[in-house]
Protein backbone atom coordinates (compact mmCIF):
# COMPACT_ATOMS: atom_id res chain seq x y z
CA UNK A 1 0.00 0.00 0.00
CA UNK A 2 1.51 3.29 -1.08
CA UNK A 3 1.89 5.96 1.58
CA UNK A 4 -0.59 8.80 1.25
CA UNK A 5 0.82 12.18 0.43
CA UNK A 6 -0.10 14.78 2.99
CA UNK A 7 -1.22 17.90 1.24
CA UNK A 8 0.22 21.08 2.68
CA UNK A 9 -2.24 23.47 4.30
CA UNK A 10 -3.15 26.29 1.93
CA UNK A 11 -1.41 29.52 2.72
CA UNK A 12 -3.54 32.20 4.43
CA UNK A 13 -3.43 35.45 2.53
CA UNK A 14 -3.98 38.40 4.84
CA UNK A 15 -5.80 41.19 3.04
CA UNK A 16 -5.56 43.39 6.14
CA UNK A 17 -2.46 44.05 8.23
CA UNK A 18 -2.17 42.06 11.43
CA UNK A 19 -3.56 43.83 14.49
CA UNK A 20 -1.37 44.33 17.54
CA UNK A 21 -3.38 42.59 20.28
CA UNK A 22 -2.33 45.28 22.76
CA UNK A 23 -4.49 47.73 20.80
CA UNK A 24 -7.66 45.73 21.54
CA UNK A 25 -8.32 47.84 24.60
CA UNK A 26 -12.02 46.94 24.72
CA UNK A 27 -10.92 43.64 26.30
CA UNK A 28 -9.02 45.37 29.12
CA UNK A 29 -11.33 45.43 32.13
CA UNK A 30 -10.42 46.93 35.48
CA UNK A 31 -10.02 44.33 38.23
CA UNK A 32 -8.43 44.17 41.65
CA UNK A 33 -9.19 46.33 44.73
CA UNK A 34 -9.43 49.60 42.79
CA UNK A 35 -11.70 51.03 45.50
CA UNK A 36 -8.70 51.24 47.84
CA UNK A 37 -7.73 54.40 45.95
CA UNK A 38 -10.46 56.18 47.95
CA UNK A 39 -9.26 56.78 51.55
CA UNK A 40 -12.75 56.12 52.91
CA UNK A 41 -12.71 52.61 51.34
CA UNK A 42 -9.09 51.69 52.02
CA UNK A 43 -10.00 48.99 54.54
CA UNK A 44 -13.03 47.64 52.67
CA UNK A 45 -12.61 43.96 51.79
CA UNK A 46 -13.53 42.44 48.45
CA UNK A 47 -16.34 40.51 50.14
CA UNK A 48 -17.81 43.75 51.46
CA UNK A 49 -17.38 45.63 48.19
CA UNK A 50 -19.09 42.89 46.18
CA UNK A 51 -22.11 42.88 48.52
CA UNK A 52 -25.00 44.90 47.13
CA UNK A 53 -26.33 45.60 50.62
CA UNK A 54 -22.99 47.16 51.57
CA UNK A 55 -23.07 49.24 48.39
CA UNK A 56 -26.63 50.40 49.09
CA UNK A 57 -25.94 51.20 52.76
CA UNK A 58 -22.86 53.21 51.89
CA UNK A 59 -24.33 55.03 48.88
CA UNK A 60 -24.04 58.72 49.58
CA UNK A 61 -27.25 60.74 49.55
CA UNK A 62 -26.09 64.07 50.96
CA UNK A 63 -23.68 66.43 49.27
CA UNK A 64 -21.78 67.02 52.51
CA UNK A 65 -21.18 63.27 52.99
CA UNK A 66 -20.04 62.87 49.41
CA UNK A 67 -17.54 65.66 49.73
CA UNK A 68 -16.43 64.32 53.12
CA UNK A 69 -15.49 61.02 51.43
CA UNK A 70 -13.28 62.98 49.04
CA UNK A 71 -11.33 64.87 51.71
CA UNK A 72 -7.62 64.61 51.04
CA UNK A 73 -7.91 63.57 47.40
CA UNK A 74 -9.44 66.70 45.85
CA UNK A 75 -8.74 70.38 46.36
CA UNK A 76 -10.73 72.69 48.60
CA UNK A 77 -11.68 74.62 45.47
CA UNK A 78 -13.24 71.50 43.94
CA UNK A 79 -15.25 70.80 47.10
CA UNK A 80 -16.53 74.38 47.15
CA UNK A 81 -17.39 74.13 43.45
CA UNK A 82 -19.29 70.86 43.94
CA UNK A 83 -21.13 72.14 47.00
CA UNK A 84 -22.47 75.06 44.99
CA UNK A 85 -23.23 72.71 42.08
CA UNK A 86 -25.43 70.48 44.22
CA UNK A 87 -27.41 73.49 45.45
CA UNK A 88 -28.22 74.43 41.86
CA UNK A 89 -29.04 70.89 40.66
CA UNK A 90 -32.58 69.67 39.91
CA UNK A 91 -31.62 66.10 40.87
CA UNK A 92 -31.04 64.84 44.40
CA UNK A 93 -27.78 63.11 45.29
CA UNK A 94 -27.14 59.36 45.30
CA UNK A 95 -23.73 57.94 44.40
CA UNK A 96 -22.62 54.35 45.04
CA UNK A 97 -19.15 53.53 46.43
CA UNK A 98 -18.54 51.51 43.24
CA UNK A 99 -19.16 54.54 41.05
CA UNK A 100 -17.17 56.86 43.31
CA UNK A 101 -14.23 54.44 43.07
CA UNK A 102 -14.20 54.52 39.27
CA UNK A 103 -13.73 58.28 39.02
CA UNK A 104 -10.18 59.49 38.37
CA UNK A 105 -9.82 61.92 41.24
CA UNK A 106 -6.44 63.12 39.98
CA UNK A 107 -8.38 64.95 37.23
CA UNK A 108 -11.91 65.42 38.62
CA UNK A 109 -12.79 68.34 36.34
CA UNK A 110 -12.21 66.24 33.22
CA UNK A 111 -13.34 62.82 34.42
CA UNK A 112 -16.38 61.61 32.39
CA UNK A 113 -17.98 59.74 35.29
CA UNK A 114 -17.71 62.70 37.66
CA UNK A 115 -19.23 64.81 34.89
CA UNK A 116 -22.35 62.63 34.80
CA UNK A 117 -23.08 62.45 38.52
CA UNK A 118 -21.46 65.33 40.42
CA UNK A 119 -22.40 68.86 39.25
CA UNK A 120 -19.91 71.70 39.45
CA UNK A 121 -21.19 75.26 39.68
CA UNK A 122 -18.28 76.52 37.57
CA UNK A 123 -19.38 74.36 34.64
CA UNK A 124 -23.11 75.10 34.70
CA UNK A 125 -24.64 76.99 31.78
CA UNK A 126 -27.99 78.78 31.53
CA UNK A 127 -30.84 76.50 30.44
CA UNK A 128 -32.03 76.81 26.87
CA UNK A 129 -35.08 79.15 26.78
CA UNK A 130 -37.22 76.45 25.12
CA UNK A 131 -36.43 73.84 27.76
CA UNK A 132 -39.17 72.52 30.07
CA UNK A 133 -39.08 70.31 33.15
CA UNK A 134 -40.98 67.49 31.42
CA UNK A 135 -39.58 68.25 27.98
CA UNK A 136 -40.77 64.96 26.46
CA UNK A 137 -44.35 65.59 27.63
CA UNK A 138 -44.59 62.18 29.31
CA UNK A 139 -47.29 63.37 31.70
CA UNK A 140 -49.35 64.81 28.84
CA UNK A 141 -49.42 61.34 27.27
CA UNK A 142 -50.29 59.61 30.58
CA UNK A 143 -53.90 58.30 30.67
CA UNK A 144 -53.33 57.21 34.28
CA UNK A 145 -50.59 58.33 36.70
CA UNK A 146 -47.23 56.73 35.96
CA UNK A 147 -48.17 55.19 32.58
CA UNK A 148 -47.26 56.94 29.33
CA UNK A 149 -49.01 55.69 26.18
CA UNK A 150 -47.40 57.50 23.25
CA UNK A 151 -46.58 54.91 20.61
CA UNK A 152 -49.39 52.82 19.08
CA UNK A 153 -48.38 49.46 20.62
CA UNK A 154 -46.04 50.43 23.47
CA UNK A 155 -46.46 51.95 26.93
CA UNK A 156 -44.01 53.16 29.57
CA UNK A 157 -44.86 52.02 33.12
CA UNK A 158 -43.24 53.89 36.03
CA UNK A 159 -43.88 51.79 39.16
CA UNK A 160 -41.54 53.81 41.41
CA UNK A 161 -39.49 57.00 41.54
CA UNK A 162 -36.14 55.97 43.04
CA UNK A 163 -32.86 54.70 41.57
CA UNK A 164 -29.63 53.15 42.90
CA UNK A 165 -27.79 56.28 41.67
CA UNK A 166 -29.14 59.60 40.42
CA UNK A 167 -27.85 60.84 37.07
CA UNK A 168 -27.54 64.59 36.56
CA UNK A 169 -28.99 64.29 33.06
CA UNK A 170 -32.12 62.32 33.94
CA UNK A 171 -34.95 63.20 31.56
CA UNK A 172 -37.39 62.23 34.33
CA UNK A 173 -36.05 64.72 36.87
CA UNK A 174 -39.63 65.98 37.20
CA UNK A 175 -40.38 62.85 39.27
CA UNK A 176 -37.25 60.88 40.17
CA UNK A 177 -35.68 61.28 43.60
CA UNK A 178 -36.65 63.56 46.46
CA UNK A 179 -37.54 67.23 46.14
CA UNK A 180 -34.60 69.60 45.68
CA UNK A 181 -34.11 73.33 46.06
CA UNK A 182 -34.91 73.59 42.35
CA UNK A 183 -37.75 71.09 41.79
CA UNK A 184 -40.85 69.84 43.64
CA UNK A 185 -41.24 66.32 42.22
CA UNK A 186 -44.34 64.70 40.77
CA UNK A 187 -45.12 61.83 43.19
CA UNK A 188 -44.68 58.35 41.68
CA UNK A 189 -43.95 56.29 44.77
CA UNK A 190 -44.76 52.58 44.96
CA UNK A 191 -48.54 52.43 45.15
CA UNK A 192 -50.41 49.23 44.32
CA UNK A 193 -53.66 51.05 43.69
CA UNK A 194 -51.84 53.12 41.07
CA UNK A 195 -50.26 49.96 39.66
CA UNK A 196 -53.67 48.23 39.39
CA UNK A 197 -55.05 51.21 37.48
CA UNK A 198 -52.13 51.00 35.05
CA UNK A 199 -52.63 47.24 34.58
CA UNK A 200 -56.36 47.78 33.95
CA UNK A 201 -55.57 50.36 31.29
CA UNK A 202 -53.05 48.07 29.57
CA UNK A 203 -55.54 45.20 29.57
CA UNK A 204 -58.21 47.48 28.11
CA UNK A 205 -56.07 48.39 25.09
CA UNK A 206 -55.61 45.35 22.81
CA UNK A 207 -53.10 47.23 20.68
CA UNK A 208 -50.62 47.48 23.59
CA UNK A 209 -48.07 44.68 23.09
CA UNK A 210 -44.84 46.18 24.43
CA UNK A 211 -44.41 47.43 28.02
CA UNK A 212 -41.31 49.16 29.40
CA UNK A 213 -41.01 48.84 33.18
CA UNK A 214 -38.84 51.74 34.25
CA UNK A 215 -39.15 54.44 36.88
CA UNK A 216 -37.10 55.37 38.71
CA UNK A 217 -35.30 52.13 38.25
CA UNK A 218 -36.36 48.49 38.22
CA UNK A 219 -33.24 47.71 40.29
CA UNK A 220 -35.01 49.33 43.25
CA UNK A 221 -38.03 47.05 43.03
CA UNK A 222 -38.08 44.29 45.63
CA UNK A 223 -37.89 40.74 44.30
CA UNK A 224 -41.55 40.17 45.13
CA UNK A 225 -42.45 43.31 43.19
CA UNK A 226 -40.47 42.20 40.13
CA UNK A 227 -42.43 38.94 40.15
CA UNK A 228 -45.75 40.69 40.78
CA UNK A 229 -45.30 43.19 37.94
CA UNK A 230 -43.82 40.62 35.57
CA UNK A 231 -46.45 37.96 36.18
CA UNK A 232 -49.32 40.45 36.02
CA UNK A 233 -48.16 41.80 32.66
CA UNK A 234 -47.49 38.31 31.28
CA UNK A 235 -51.04 37.32 32.23
CA UNK A 236 -52.47 40.13 30.08
CA UNK A 237 -53.13 38.42 26.71
CA UNK A 238 -52.22 41.37 24.50
CA UNK A 239 -48.79 41.95 26.14
CA UNK A 240 -46.15 40.24 23.99
CA UNK A 241 -42.94 42.01 25.03
CA UNK A 242 -41.61 43.44 28.28
CA UNK A 243 -38.44 45.33 29.18
CA UNK A 244 -37.14 45.95 32.68
CA UNK A 245 -35.11 49.17 32.52
CA UNK A 246 -32.26 49.79 34.94
CA UNK A 247 -29.09 51.84 35.29
CA UNK A 248 -27.99 49.26 37.88
CA UNK A 249 -25.41 47.22 35.94
CA UNK A 250 -23.45 50.42 35.25
CA UNK A 251 -23.46 51.74 38.81
CA UNK A 252 -23.94 48.70 41.07
CA UNK A 253 -23.32 45.38 39.25
CA UNK A 254 -22.85 43.78 42.66
CA UNK A 255 -26.63 43.37 42.97
CA UNK A 256 -26.68 40.82 40.15
CA UNK A 257 -23.87 38.91 41.86
CA UNK A 258 -25.17 38.98 45.42
CA UNK A 259 -28.94 39.63 45.45
CA UNK A 260 -30.09 36.10 44.65
CA UNK A 261 -33.76 36.84 45.33
CA UNK A 262 -33.90 39.74 42.85
CA UNK A 263 -31.96 37.78 40.23
CA UNK A 264 -34.21 34.76 40.67
CA UNK A 265 -37.29 36.96 40.34
CA UNK A 266 -36.05 38.45 37.07
CA UNK A 267 -35.06 35.00 35.80
CA UNK A 268 -38.51 33.66 36.71
CA UNK A 269 -40.24 36.34 34.62
CA UNK A 270 -37.83 35.81 31.69
CA UNK A 271 -38.27 32.01 31.73
CA UNK A 272 -42.04 32.14 32.23
CA UNK A 273 -42.28 34.61 29.37
CA UNK A 274 -40.24 32.33 27.12
CA UNK A 275 -42.57 29.41 27.86
CA UNK A 276 -45.51 31.66 26.96
CA UNK A 277 -43.67 32.74 23.78
CA UNK A 278 -43.34 36.27 25.14
CA UNK A 279 -40.10 38.25 25.23
CA UNK A 280 -38.74 39.64 28.51
CA UNK A 281 -35.39 41.46 28.41
CA UNK A 282 -33.26 43.82 30.50
CA UNK A 283 -32.43 47.30 29.24
CA UNK A 284 -29.51 49.09 30.84
CA UNK A 285 -27.52 52.28 30.48
CA UNK A 286 -23.74 52.43 30.02
CA UNK A 287 -22.41 55.77 28.79
CA UNK A 288 -18.62 55.44 29.01
CA UNK A 289 -16.13 52.57 28.67
CA UNK A 290 -14.79 53.19 32.20
CA UNK A 291 -18.16 52.10 33.62
CA UNK A 292 -17.47 48.54 32.44
CA UNK A 293 -15.15 46.60 34.75
CA UNK A 294 -14.34 43.01 35.57
CA UNK A 295 -17.18 43.12 38.09
CA UNK A 296 -19.50 44.18 35.27
CA UNK A 297 -18.33 41.25 33.16
CA UNK A 298 -18.94 38.79 36.01
CA UNK A 299 -22.47 40.16 36.44
CA UNK A 300 -23.24 40.09 32.72
CA UNK A 301 -21.94 36.51 32.54
CA UNK A 302 -24.48 35.51 35.20
CA UNK A 303 -27.30 37.10 33.21
CA UNK A 304 -26.04 35.50 29.99
CA UNK A 305 -25.94 32.05 31.61
CA UNK A 306 -29.54 32.54 32.73
CA UNK A 307 -30.65 33.48 29.24
CA UNK A 308 -31.34 37.14 30.03
CA UNK A 309 -30.81 39.36 26.97
CA UNK A 310 -29.33 42.77 27.85
CA UNK A 311 -29.63 45.82 25.61
CA UNK A 312 -28.12 49.25 26.22
CA UNK A 313 -29.36 52.81 25.78
CA UNK A 314 -26.72 55.55 26.05
CA UNK A 315 -27.06 59.32 26.16
CA UNK A 316 -24.69 61.41 24.05
CA UNK A 317 -22.96 63.82 26.43
CA UNK A 318 -20.43 66.55 25.90
CA UNK A 319 -17.06 65.61 27.36
CA UNK A 320 -18.28 62.10 28.19
CA UNK A 321 -18.83 60.12 25.00
CA UNK A 322 -19.10 62.64 22.17
CA UNK A 323 -15.73 61.63 20.67
CA UNK A 324 -15.87 58.86 18.08
CA UNK A 325 -12.99 56.92 19.67
CA UNK A 326 -14.76 56.90 23.05
CA UNK A 327 -18.09 55.78 21.59
CA UNK A 328 -16.35 53.12 19.51
CA UNK A 329 -14.58 51.76 22.59
CA UNK A 330 -17.85 51.80 24.54
CA UNK A 331 -19.80 49.74 22.02
CA UNK A 332 -16.90 47.31 21.51
CA UNK A 333 -16.51 46.82 25.27
CA UNK A 334 -20.26 46.31 25.70
CA UNK A 335 -20.18 43.68 22.97
CA UNK A 336 -17.28 41.99 24.76
CA UNK A 337 -19.47 41.51 27.87
CA UNK A 338 -22.60 40.50 25.90
CA UNK A 339 -24.50 43.79 26.09
CA UNK A 340 -26.14 44.83 22.83
CA UNK A 341 -25.91 48.51 21.89
CA UNK A 342 -29.46 49.62 21.09
CA UNK A 343 -29.84 53.41 21.18
CA UNK A 344 -27.73 56.52 21.67
CA UNK A 345 -29.99 59.43 22.53
CA UNK A 346 -29.17 62.95 21.44
CA UNK A 347 -29.26 64.53 24.91
CA UNK A 348 -32.76 65.55 25.97
CA UNK A 349 -33.53 69.12 26.97
CA UNK A 350 -33.08 68.67 30.73
CA UNK A 351 -32.89 71.38 33.37
CA UNK A 352 -29.52 72.17 34.91
CA UNK A 353 -27.32 70.19 32.51
CA UNK A 354 -26.84 72.41 29.47
CA UNK A 355 -23.09 71.83 29.87
CA UNK A 356 -23.68 68.13 29.04
CA UNK A 357 -25.61 68.66 25.82
CA UNK A 358 -23.97 68.82 22.43
CA UNK A 359 -25.34 69.50 18.97
CA UNK A 360 -27.37 67.20 16.76
CA UNK A 361 -24.65 67.64 14.15
CA UNK A 362 -22.02 66.32 16.55
CA UNK A 363 -24.13 63.22 17.14
CA UNK A 364 -24.51 62.62 13.41
CA UNK A 365 -20.73 62.79 12.97
CA UNK A 366 -20.11 60.31 15.79
CA UNK A 367 -22.61 57.85 14.33
CA UNK A 368 -21.03 58.12 10.90
CA UNK A 369 -17.59 57.45 12.39
CA UNK A 370 -18.51 54.36 14.42
CA UNK A 371 -20.74 52.60 11.90
CA UNK A 372 -18.93 49.57 10.51
CA UNK A 373 -16.57 49.18 13.47
CA UNK A 374 -18.48 46.15 14.78
CA UNK A 375 -21.51 44.00 13.94
CA UNK A 376 -24.71 45.82 13.06
CA UNK A 377 -26.64 44.32 15.98
CA UNK A 378 -23.98 45.80 18.31
CA UNK A 379 -24.08 49.22 16.63
CA UNK A 380 -26.51 51.69 18.22
CA UNK A 381 -29.06 53.76 16.37
CA UNK A 382 -28.69 57.45 17.21
CA UNK A 383 -32.09 58.92 18.00
CA UNK A 384 -33.58 62.25 18.95
CA UNK A 385 -36.49 61.95 21.39
CA UNK A 386 -38.53 64.78 19.94
CA UNK A 387 -39.43 67.41 22.57
CA UNK A 388 -43.15 67.79 23.09
CA UNK A 389 -43.99 64.12 22.71
CA UNK A 390 -42.99 63.19 19.17
CA UNK A 391 -41.14 60.15 20.38
CA UNK A 392 -37.84 58.69 19.26
CA UNK A 393 -36.84 59.69 15.74
CA UNK A 394 -33.78 58.49 13.86
CA UNK A 395 -31.39 61.42 14.35
CA UNK A 396 -30.77 61.59 10.59
CA UNK A 397 -34.49 61.79 9.77
CA UNK A 398 -35.00 65.48 10.45
CA UNK A 399 -37.13 67.41 7.97
CA UNK A 400 -34.94 70.49 8.37
CA UNK A 401 -31.82 71.37 10.37
CA UNK A 402 -30.54 74.95 10.66
CA UNK A 403 -27.03 74.70 12.10
CA UNK A 404 -26.89 78.47 12.69
CA UNK A 405 -29.95 78.68 14.96
CA UNK A 406 -29.51 75.08 16.11
CA UNK A 407 -33.14 74.21 15.38
CA UNK A 408 -33.93 70.79 13.91
CA UNK A 409 -37.47 69.84 12.93
CA UNK A 410 -38.90 66.32 13.04
CA UNK A 411 -42.23 64.78 12.16
CA UNK A 412 -43.69 61.61 13.68
CA UNK A 413 -46.32 60.26 11.26
CA UNK A 414 -47.02 57.07 13.23
CA UNK A 415 -47.12 58.83 16.60
CA UNK A 416 -48.67 62.29 16.13
CA UNK A 417 -49.46 62.77 12.49
CA UNK A 418 -49.36 66.28 11.11
CA UNK A 419 -47.34 67.83 13.91
CA UNK A 420 -43.81 69.25 13.83
CA UNK A 421 -41.41 68.84 16.74
CA UNK A 422 -38.33 71.00 17.30
CA UNK A 423 -35.06 70.07 18.95
CA UNK A 424 -32.67 72.83 19.97
CA UNK A 425 -28.87 72.66 20.03
CA UNK A 426 -27.14 74.27 23.05
CA UNK A 427 -26.74 78.00 22.46
CA UNK A 428 -23.09 78.15 23.54
CA UNK A 429 -22.11 75.80 20.68
CA UNK A 430 -23.86 77.82 17.95
CA UNK A 431 -22.13 80.17 15.52
CA UNK A 432 -22.05 83.79 16.80
CA UNK A 433 -24.97 84.79 14.55
CA UNK A 434 -27.25 82.09 15.96
CA UNK A 435 -26.17 82.67 19.54
CA UNK A 436 -26.87 86.39 19.20
CA UNK A 437 -30.39 85.76 17.92
CA UNK A 438 -31.22 83.59 20.93
CA UNK A 439 -30.23 86.45 23.23
CA UNK A 440 -33.24 88.37 21.92
CA UNK A 441 -36.54 86.81 23.13
CA UNK A 442 -38.34 88.50 20.26
CA UNK A 443 -36.37 86.35 17.83
CA UNK A 444 -37.28 82.99 19.37
CA UNK A 445 -40.65 82.35 17.75
CA UNK A 446 -39.64 83.76 14.32
CA UNK A 447 -36.68 81.37 14.27
CA UNK A 448 -38.93 78.41 15.13
CA UNK A 449 -41.59 79.47 12.61
CA UNK A 450 -38.94 79.80 9.90
CA UNK A 451 -37.54 76.33 10.67
CA UNK A 452 -40.99 74.71 10.52
CA UNK A 453 -41.81 76.57 7.31
CA UNK A 454 -38.59 75.28 5.77
CA UNK A 455 -39.45 71.74 6.91
CA UNK A 456 -42.88 72.01 5.28
CA UNK A 457 -41.36 73.33 2.08
CA UNK A 458 -38.81 70.50 1.90
CA UNK A 459 -41.57 67.94 2.46
CA UNK A 460 -43.46 69.02 -0.67
SSE blueprint and pairings:
Layout: H1 46-49, H2 52-57, H3 63-69, H4 76-88, H5 97-102, H6 112-117, E1 147-148, E2 154-157, H7 192-204, E3 210-213, H8 223-234, E4 241-245, H9 248-251, H10 254-258, H11 260-275, E5 279-284, H12 294-305, E6 310-316, H13 324-336, E7 340-346, H14 360-370, E8 381-386, E9 391-394, E10 400-402, E11 407-411, E12 420-424, H15 432-438, H16 441-459
Parallel strand pairs: 2-3, 3-4, 4-5, 5-6, 6-7, 7-8
Antiparallel strand pairs: 1-2, 8-9, 10-11, 11-12
Helix pairs in contact: 8-11, 13-14
Describe the protein.
- With 460 residues, the chain is of the alpha/beta class.
- The chain has 3 domains: 27-123, no CATH class; 147-393, Aldolase class I (TIM Barrel), CATH 3.20.20.70; 398-460, no CATH class.
- It has 16 helices and 12 strands.
- The strands form 2 sheets. It has a 9-stranded mixed beta sheet.
- Helix 13 (324-336) crosses helix 14.
- The termini are far apart.
- The mean pLDDT is 93.
Q: What series of H and E elements makes up the topology?
A: HHHHHHEEHEHEHHHEHEHEHEEEEEHH
Number of helices: 16
The radius of gyration computed from the alpha-carbon positions, rounded to a whole number of angstroms, is 24 Å
What's the main sheet like?
9 strands, mixed
Q: Which class of the largest domain in CATH terms?
A: Alpha Beta
Number-wise, the strands total 12
User: Ends: how far apart?
Assistant: 82 Å
Mean pLDDT across all amino acids:
93
Give the class from helix and strand content and strand pairing.
Answer: alpha/beta
Helix content: 25-40%
- Please tell me what the overall shape is: globular
Poorly predicted parts: none
**Considering the protein shown, what is the CATH homologous superfamily of the largest domain?**
Aldolase class I
Estimate what percentage of residues fall within beta strands: 5-15%
CATH domain fold name of the largest domain: TIM Barrel
Number of self-contained structural domains: 3
Amino acid sequence: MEPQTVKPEPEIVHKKPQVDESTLTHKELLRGPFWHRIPAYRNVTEEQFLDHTWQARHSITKAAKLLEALQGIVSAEFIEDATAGFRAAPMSVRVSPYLLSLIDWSRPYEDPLRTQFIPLASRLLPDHPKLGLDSLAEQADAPVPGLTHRYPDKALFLPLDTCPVYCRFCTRSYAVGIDTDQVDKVPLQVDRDRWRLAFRYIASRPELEDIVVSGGDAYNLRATQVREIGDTLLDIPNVRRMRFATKGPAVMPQKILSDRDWLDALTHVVERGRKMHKEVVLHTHFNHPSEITGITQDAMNVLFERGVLVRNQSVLQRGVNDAADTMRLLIKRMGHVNVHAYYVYIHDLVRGVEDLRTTLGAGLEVEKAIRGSTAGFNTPVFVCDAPGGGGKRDAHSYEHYDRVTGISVYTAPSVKHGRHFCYFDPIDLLPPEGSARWQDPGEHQPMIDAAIAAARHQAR
